Amino acid sequence: MPRTVTVTFASPEMASRVAGLHQIRDAQRVATAGKHVELSTDALEALAELPEDHDGHFDGRSIVVGGIAYPVEGLVTDTPLRREWAPWLGPAADEMSDEQIEQLAEAAALVDERWPDEPDYQEERTAALSAIVQVLIGDESLEKIAEQWRRARLAEIEARAALTGALAGMKAAGVSEVKLAERAGITRLTVRKHLGKGK
Length: 199
Fold this sequence. Notes:
Blueprint: E1 4-8, H1 12-19, H2 22-25, E2 31-33, E3 36-40, H3 41-48, E4 57-58, E5 62-65, E6 68-73, H4 80-89, H5 98-114, H6 122-137, H7 142-172, H8 177-184, H9 188-194
Antiparallel strand pairs: 1-3, 1-6, 2-3, 4-5, 5-6
Helix pairs in contact: 5-6, 8-9
């Protein structure tokens, strides 16, 4: 099934001229609104067959009019970068444009600096990479993810305080630091820090 892509031209007249080319009139062109033309990938294939010096020629990334290249937004092509990410992305790869795949790769490089691809960091990496994809394709917003982080941070603060209280209570009841550590599943040093003794 053909995908729909968008091109923004310099003027509504230019957009209408390209949309009206006889090569794509019968293709599945969707709509023209002002300077924007929404058209199917079938229409792009027809424009790719135009001579390179013909207005409306599709060069694989842009539609060229008057020697100026107007980028196609939402374009999906079989690039090496897409093939590299496709196994990890799964079905989401089909939802992402070439530009979004490039943005994913750029953002993932920042994640690599923070959490290298090593066993100790897999949970963090997976969460970060998943969030990149979710915001790029619009399944989640930065605001919503930030709110989830704020709630999780507050929950962590409250849980840590509750643990300190529980340790203090058991210590007051005569339980040794060694036993506290065993029962809580933490180190004795962590017990001491919670009780205000560690540095």
